[in-house]
Amino acid sequence: MKPLIHEDFLLQSEAARSLYHDYAKALPIIDYHCHLDPQAIAEDRRFRSITELWLGGDHYKWRALRTFGVEERYITGDATDEEKFAKWSGVLPYTVGNPLYHWSALELKTYFGVEEQLHPGNWRDIYEHCNRLLAGEGFSARGLIGRSGVQWICTTDDPADDLRYHKRIAALENFGTGVTPTFRPDKALQIEAPDFADYVAVLEQAAGCRIDSYAAMERVLLERVAYFASHGCMISDHAFTYVPYAEANEAELEAIFAKRLGGGCLTRQEADQYTTALFLALGRKYASLGWAMQLHIGALRNPNSRRFRELGPDTGFDIIGDGSFAQPLSRLLDGLERSGELPKTILYTLNAVHNDVLAAMAGSFQEGGIKGKVQFGSGWWYNDQKDGMLKQLTSLSNLGLLSCFVGMLTDSRSFLSYTRHEYFRRILCNLLGGWVESGEAPRDLPLLGGIVQDICHHNAERYFGLPVGG
């Protein structure tokens, strides 16, 4: 029987096969948005088992296990690694149609040479085979990054982080992958969060000064931006459940900040005024440094209150929101553009209904001299599967320029997720190859191959200002 993952997997035409094998396949990976742990990279973490490496922290697999009725102790609980892996082997065959089926097969083949599909009859053999490899050379955190052909990694980091592990990574010899932080100030902007005052205290400690006013908060955050920049940071990241926009003067901002630190509850208008002002101040700073700014829009967090109490945030329960945001987002971007201080910006939506909104919006804020200054970002989270990628690529093609796209990212906590770049590249090449076969694109493979290489690597390298070639 032919293995599921073979050299022409997902490539349905001769043009698609040529574009992938001749142009896309060998390109290094630029992972400009992920959630890998910099401590694990700095310490070159070893993994006790395939369960820890493959299932630990993987929200996608956790959701599938829960949907199949598996008890939580076999997911995030105290079951042994063997028990958890055995449970996953019983679920994976029934994920057909879910991207996990393809991702898992790609991960097992790429890193462990396993071509047969995992199921309850072979799980122990595969478990022991993978664990033997993990105990050997080349399967530590840095070893897996090297095996994946990763040129650059941008982790996701809080402004209060002292970046000690990034400093250690930067000092490493014989590690060929660049690793830099990404500035993620969500906790500072979410003034209505119950733990906002606690976070202010954490930020005070990192900054070494009191934050007792809005002006002090803004000043400290801008100083933290400069600190991150001094350690190689070139990207910021903001997450919005919904997009706010409300103007305020200095006196209003100081009153809002004092009210919240004093334990008061803010109105929606007051919270939006604070977030808007602080976001615009940060945006101007990013522009001055030449950074790119990412806006991730539409995740509805922690809808299951019982599971949130039991397991905490980021455990696989967040969902897709359905709010509208075109008007406030356009005003936020214009608030920076009016003074010529809109940084390079990547717009992502978790709800594919809004793909055309963001693709069109990106086209209204471009600028001469910067190729694709405002980007409609890749299919993200629930959209980083075949249909989601195709929808994003189609909207971008119809309303913008696909050739200017900065391509795929992992958005993952797993060191095995780099196969998602292969998945994306195959889907992209099959899309363009299909256009060739249907007569919608010229059979000019050098031209189309150059576009594929730009999307898969070169555009991102130029956009983020990486050292050429690594």
Overall description:
By secondary structure, this protein is an alpha/beta fold. Among the domains are: 89 residues, uronate isomerase, domain 2, chain A (Orthogonal Bundle), CATH 1.10.2020; 204 residues, TIM Barrel. Helices cover 49% and strands 8% of the residues. It is built from 20 helices and nine strands. The strands form three sheets. A four-stranded parallel β-sheet has the order 4-5-8-9, with helices on one face. Helix 1 crosses helix 19, helix 11 packs across helix 12 and helix 18 crosses helix 19. The longest helix is centred in the middle third of the chain and has 22 residues.
The SSE order reads HEHHHHHHHEHEHHHEHHEEHEHEHEHHH
Task: State the helical fraction.
Answer: 40-55%
Shape: globular
Biggest sheet overview:
4 strands, parallel
Compact summary:
The chain is an alpha/beta fold and 470 residues long. 49% of the residues lie in helices and 8% in strands. It has a four-stranded parallel β-sheet, with helices on one face. Strands 1-2-3 form a three-stranded parallel β-sheet.
What are the main properties of this structure?
alpha/beta; 8% strand; uronate isomerase, domain 2, chain A; single chain; TIM Barrel; 470 residues
Topology:
Blueprint: H1 14-24, E1 29-31, H2 38-42, H3 50-55, H4 59-67, H5 81-91, H6 99-112, H7 123-134, H8 141-147, E2 150-154, H9 164-170, E3 178-180, H10 186-189, H11 196-207, H12 214-230, E4 235-240, H13 250-261, H14 268-289, E5 292-297, E6 299-300, H15 305-311, E7 319-320, H16 326-337, E8 344-349, H17 355-363, E9 374-376, H18 386-399, H19 419-437, H20 445-463
Parallel strand pairs: 1-2, 2-3, 4-5, 5-8, 8-9
Antiparallel strand pairs: 6-7
Helix pairs in contact: 1-19, 1-20, 11-12, 12-14, 17-18, 18-19
